[in-house]
Design a protein that fits this description.
The structure holds two protein chains of two kinds.
Chain A lengths: L2 H15 L2 H20 L2 H4 L5 H5 L1 H13 L1 H9 L1 H6 L5 H21 L2 H10 L4 H28 L3 H17 L3 H8 L4 H9 L2 H9 L5 H25 L3
Chain B lengths: L1 E10 L2 E11 L4 E5 L6 H8 L7 E6 L2 E2 L4 H7 E4 L11 H11 L4 H15 L14 H13 L5 E5 L7 H13 L5 E6 L2 H7 L2 E6 L2 E6 L1 H6 L7 E5 L14 E7 L4 E6 L6 H10 L4 E6 L4 H11 L3
Parallel strand pairs in B: 3-8, 3-9, 6-7, 7-8
Antiparallel strand pairs in B: 1-2, 1-4, 4-5, 9-10, 11-13, 11-14, 12-13
Helix pairs in contact in B: 3-4, 4-5
Classes of the chains: A mainly alpha, B alpha/beta.
The complex binds adenosine-5'-diphosphate (ADP) and magnesium ion.
Chain lengths: ~240, ~300
């Protein structure tokens, strides 16, 4: 097995060795249901799709993904295991990728476990399952973007709570930069180009189409790029701060 | 072989390792001594590639640590200070994980894991989460992971800290039993540890390397080295001992009815002292030759930098 594989396996099982993963998946499923049925008006809309479900994902991830990312590096630094990890014959990038993939797999698992919703909508009507699949994939990639921010913030501090708060704040900026409230605030004075740039940084703008089942390469590339940049920043931070 | 040249490390302007140079050859078991905060751990972190030096050069088997850190990491087994480990894992899972990362596979991996478990005697805690283990067991798990790949270079930061005397003995035995062509560096502030397991002592204080020689040479620095101490069953006049040939001076401890006779450098005085004691019928209860008092030498050396 390659180093990333070995590290991935350790990280992934460590989520399940403590209640972290179970609590996370539980909350994710409960909130998904609440948002879809009560807030999103799943029945009232009378349409056979999962749009209300997917529309809430950015807001769900805003809090849940930082929660699952916060301990990954903070705890290594706090308990000193980072000294062990970094003196094993592995590179920081391998460790970072393994941590990312392990948490991303937990997120993927949570998404998979929402399958009762999919069964429900198939039972009630005849949805376009291709659209639903595309939306799932889009949501998973967006979760990856949130996750990379969370990991980077976790690399920044030994304190998990601070890592969580910082991650929520940064993620929040990335989400709301695409909402009308923010864009309207700029519209009165900023040139269109600036507004477009701000909107194009937003997770919302890039997820919107995907939630409707349209997977555009540009959106996937956007999330991959966001992921890559934040993970890379996280690696630089770890290199800098590992011994503090 | 480890070669360190003019090593410096500072944290935010605070000089923690200050111009340290040394070579360590296979077969050397180095005791790294120094008061708390001397810079022992920091030096070890640089040797293992965890910390980058502020200045200076570290080469291991002619590989520079800046350029070949991965290759070097494969040669080293390291027990960091405090023996950190993933607390949610059991020792068995943890050792298996380390073995895999160290590139062990299949049967060889299972074999090595079993061997180290035997060596440090982890059987009874094998399936408990490391978080729930006592300090002694945690330390042994850390030791096990450091030796699992049978490294050429073993760096142990305070391996016996927090162990009871039996466990300390066990760890020392383990280090002694490692093959003779390895490099072992252990940091400690327990002085007996050094004479027990090491064939070389380095004393570092305030980031400076102040002593680098054999444990015997350290003993010889003590003014007690080769001195003869006699204890009497009742107070007796032993002042004539000071007149014997080869004797430099004498100290009397009235409270314990002890007399210590110091030799001139290089002189053997045991024979003349015993002969004299017999001749004068001194009421000798016990008599022994001092090996040197390390704690005092240690204080002398490490406090030199203060003045
Ligand atoms: N990451 C760090 N940042 C700032 N100061 C440090 C850091 N690590 C160690 N020090 C300081 O360096 C000095 C030496 O520490 P250390 O090498 O751990 O000593 P020892 O292991 O000999 O007890 C101490 O004064 C300690 O406070
Ligand atoms: Mg130390």
């Amino acid at each position: 097995m390659s180093n990333v594989g070995i590290l991935f396996k350790r990280e992934f099982s460590s989520f399940f060795a403590s209640p972290v993963a179970y609590v996370f998946i539980g909350i994710f499923l409960v909130l998904s249901a609440v948002f879809t049925f009560f807030v999103g008006g799943f029945y009232e809309r009378g349409q056979a799709d999962l749009l209300p479900f997917f529309n809430f994902h950015p807001w769900l991830y805003l809090f849940l993904v930082p929660a699952i990312a916060m301990r990954s590096w903070s705890e290594e630094r706090k308990t000193g295991t980072i000294e062990l990890l970094m003196t094993l014959p592995i590179s920081i990038s391998q460790a970072m990728i393994a941590k990312y993939l392990a948490a991303w797999a937990v997120l993927g698992l949570s998404l998979l476990l929402t399958f009762p919703l999919w069964l429900t909508v198939n039972y009630l009507g005849e949805p376009d399952n291709g659209i639903i699949l595309a939306a799932y994939i889009g949501s998973w990639f967006m979760a990856g973007g949130f996750l990379a921010i969370g990991l980077c913030m976790s690399a920044l501090t030994k304190n998990q709570v601070i890592a969580f708060i910082l991650a929520v704040v940064v993620c929040f900026v990335f989400v709301v930069s695409g909402t009308n409230i923010v864009l309207d605030a700029f519209k009165s004075w900023a040139p269109i180009a600036v507004i477009d740039v701000i909107a194009s940084f937003s997770f919302l703008s890039h997820f919107e189409a995907m939630a409707k089942g349209v997977i555009a390469l540009a959106d996937i590339v956007y999330f991959l790029l966001v992921t890559f940049i934040w993970l890379y920043a996280g690696m630089l931070l770890i290199e800098q701060k590992k011994a503090d | 072989m480890i070669s360190v040249k003019n090593l410096f490390k500072s944290f935010g302007g605070h000089q923690v390792v200050n111009d340290v140079s040394f070579d360590i050859r296979p077969g050397d078991v180095v005791g790294f001594l120094g008061p708390n905060g001397a810079g022992k751990s920091t030096t070890m972190k640089m040797l293992t590639g965890f910390l980058a030096p502020s200045n200076g050069e570290i080469t291991i088997d002619n590989l520079s640590i800046n350029h070949c850190s991965l290759k070097i990491k494969q040669k080293i087994g390291y027990l960091p200070e405090g023996a950190p480990a993933y607390g949610e894992m059991t020792p068995y899972q943890f050792l298996l994980f380390i073995a895999k990362v160290r590139g062990l596979k299949g049967l060889a991996k299972a074999q090595r894991v079993k061997e180290v478990i035997d060596q440090v005697e982890l059987h009874e805690v094998l399936n408990k989460p490391i978080d729930n283990l006592s300090k002694g067991f945690k330390r042994r798990v850390g030791l096990a992971q450091a030796i699992i790949h049978d490294p050429q270079i073993l760096i142990l930061d305070e391996p016996t800290d927090g162990l009871d005397p039996n466990q300390k003995h066990q760890v020392r035995q383990l280090i002694k039993n490692l093959s003779k062509d390895k490099i072992v560096i252990i940091s400690t502030h327990i002085l007996e540890e050094v004479s027990a397991v090491c064939n070389r002592v380095m004393i570092i204080s305030k980031g400076k390397l102040l002593f680098d020689d054999t444990p015997e040479a350290l003993n010889q620095r003590s003014k007690y080295y080769g001195a003869v101490t006699l204890q009497f069953s009742y107070p007796a006049d032993a002042s004539e001992l000071a007149e014997l040939e080869g004797v430099a001076s004498m100290e009397e401890d009235l409270e314990n009815r002890c007399v210590t006779v110091f030799p001139l450098p290089g002189a053997q005085i045991l024979h003349s002292v015993t002969t004299h004691a017999q001749h004068c019928r001194l009421p000798v209860d016990s008599l022994f030759v001092e090996q040197g008092r390390l704690d005092q030498v240690f204080r002398d050396i490490t406090q030199e930098v203060n003045v």
